[in-house]
Amino acid sequence: MNLPVEQPATPPFVFPRFPTTRGRRYVVRVAELISHSPAETATLGEHWGRTVACGCVIALHGDLGAGKTQWVKGLARGLGITARVHSPTFTLVNVYPGGRLSLFHLDLYRLETPDQIHEAGLEEYLTPDGVTVIEWAERWPLLNPEPAPPTAAASRALRRVWIEIIGDTQRRIYHEDPGA
Q1: Domain with 111 in it: what CATH number?
Q2: Minimum mean pLDDT among 18-32, 78-92, 120-134, 156-170: which range?
Q3: Three-state SS for 135?
Q4: Positive or negative torsion for Cα 165, 169, 175, 180
Q5: Helix H or strand E encompassing 71
Q6: 3-state DSSP call for residue 63?
Q7: Is the C or the N end of the chain the one with fewer CB within 10 Å?
Q8: Within a domain: residue 18?
């Protein structure tokens, strides 16, 4: 299988959904790559799983069917988790122990307001003893701070991944890359 070559987007890359302050957008360096199949999307997640640090929170963004859960399946495989990974749309949280780090997989699709998210008591997953992945992260204001930019420590603990549908099986995947 040919993995897509990871190439940085033209830096600096500005995401329109990122918070602004005093009329200026935060500039975030990102890497962009193209996945040609669900298996490749999972393989990209697997690469992250091999190196992700304890305490990391990964905010996943993308439309229905973009491949967010597929990416999480790969992340779990990279962590050494052998359990079957599935979307926690109806349970809100699935916990997968047994890898080099535990995986906490959240799905906010069914929670439409910040109050619903707060009432669900999910804040504990923002400081995980393992790795937290949050699908539909744009619904949680704590993950999209206004007006202050994230601190250096927070930016190491919070990483964002965007998956965009560009064809039947092709996906454009952007992710924050502090080293880009």
Answers
A1: 3.40.50.300
A2: 18-32
A3: strand
A4: negative
A5: helix 68-79
A6: coil
A7: N
A8: no
